[in-house]
Please model this.
Amino acid sequence: MPGSEHGASQPTEQEIDVQARIVWNYHLMGQQLQTSDCLLTLGSNDPRVAEYAAELYLAGWAPRLIFSGGVGALTEGLYGCSEAEFFAKIAIGLGVPEDRILIEPRSTNTGENIALTRALLARAQLAVERVILVQKPFMERRAYATFKRQWPEPVLIVTSPPIGYRDYPTETLSKQDLINVMVGDLQRIRLYPARGFQIPQAIPDPVWAAFKRLVEWGYTRHLAESPDTV
Model:
């Protein structure tokens, strides 16, 4: 359990979970799937995202599957190749035809995921009007906001593996790490529109109150800057 960096009393596990679930639920967009021109899957350290993207392709939600992602801080040395290439191998192993897959292996952040994928599609002369964006659950909203800033024209549906907050942590992603990332991404949703990285999104008062409480309890490792500046 993290220590308090601001003098607050030590929270219980249940108190942490209550506040973390508020943030988790905010990050989920809750959008309904619609048949689209492509599935754009963002690479990461979580192969379950690739498995879910393959499942969506095989279910007929889109005729083409794109994987985007280079090597990031969390995947350096993990896969022996780019995130996009590793995810593509998973999809092929699950039955997705290789000729239905496009790979963008150079991006290192969400903005580059979108910009480089857009350029890839342009070079391939593939026009898209509707995109399903596949991401981790706790990064849905940030990915959505970044996509709409970088590439506003397509109709966008964002989705993620249907795994809840309680079950999401793994051997390589602890609950402490999960909460730190959620808190940091929530701060970025507030900060980044002014920097031109994302579209603005309203943050309800109870969600921001949960952010402040979790910061008080020491969940500050993924913050973009000091919480006192927001």
Notes: The chain is about 40% helix and 10% strand. The CA atoms of residues 25 and 178 lie 13 Å apart.
